[in-house]
Amino acid sequence: MKREICQICSNDIEPYCDYIYDDRYGYPKNYSLLKCKSCGHVVVAPKMTHNEIATLYTEYYPRNEMPAEMNTKSIFASKYKIYLEGKKTLCHYSIPSKSCCLDIGCGFGESLLYLKHKKCDVYGVEADENVLKMAEKYDLDVKIGLFEPADYSDQKFDYVTMSQVLEHMLNPIETVKGIHDILKPGGQLIFSVPNSQSLMAKLFKRKWINWHIPYHQQHFTKDSILVLAHKCGFEVESIKIITPTSWIIYQINHLLYYPSQGKVSVFWSYSYNNNLCSKLILTTTGIIDRLKLMAPIARLLDLFKLGESYVVMFRKQ
């Protein structure tokens, strides 16, 4: 039998969860989770191909159902609101003005719009072709496809950001090494990833919101992040834990409307917005969000290092 090893530290991995599936958008296959005995890193099995990933995002991820508009009021939030809502998991909020920046997995381009406002020279890359309509509308420089360092061989960046993106990558070490190559000396990689050792991950097990199978291929721990930095030639500037306040609300609704395999979740799909159940969920979520009722819980989780997301800064040596 072929020995299974960790993608991050190359030590042995073992079964962790033997049956888990897409509990948001209805992708029909089921998967397993494997966990490293040394660094605790968790991966999805069987591993998907690049073509399967591209099909997954274009056909199942619901951006093609979303309205082509940005909430600019939310993008340009105050520092207090950013803290209260745990928005620092969006890495562009850590970039200083007049920097040269690449955002990998830029989505609809909210980060690019924010950084353009700060007079940054900013570029984006996004696998989902459905974002083209937004990039064209707001005149954003977005490459559609996967991140390829060779596409940026003629320029160097002060910062590269990935907000909740690295967990989607099939080969995180290859990705981070590629980022190292396109950063200026002393340049920074800033990224956020879910914390697979969070309190909610331990409480809700396979129904934890951030397994998000099969979209999330990698599930990080602090130890696996430290190994990643060492292998890719980076110094670790900081590792913080920050919980987006809305994620607590989402976890509750996720549990209430957990779908069977191959079914689309009522809570997560935009196509269900017109039915009464969905309207009640979204209305309730909106009220709780506006009142910031979950903010004290989120900040307490972070204080005790039990929160939902790592925010990491690497510096090129």
UniProtKB/TrEMBL annotation:
Keywords: Methyltransferase, Transferase. The keyword Transmembrane does not apply. GO terms for biological process: methylation. This is Class I SAM-dependent methyltransferase. The keyword Secreted does not apply. It comes from the Archaea. GO terms for molecular function: methyltransferase activity.
